[in-house]
Amino acid sequence: MTVKIGVFRYDLKEVPAVIAKDGLECFGLCRQDDLTIRIDESGNNARKLNSYFHELLEALNFLYGFDLTHAQVIGIASGMAQVLQENPELTNRLQELWKLKHVQYGPMITLEDEDEDK
Question: Which of 4, 17, 81, 105 has the highest CB neighbour number within 10 Å of its CB?
Answer without folding.
Answer: 81
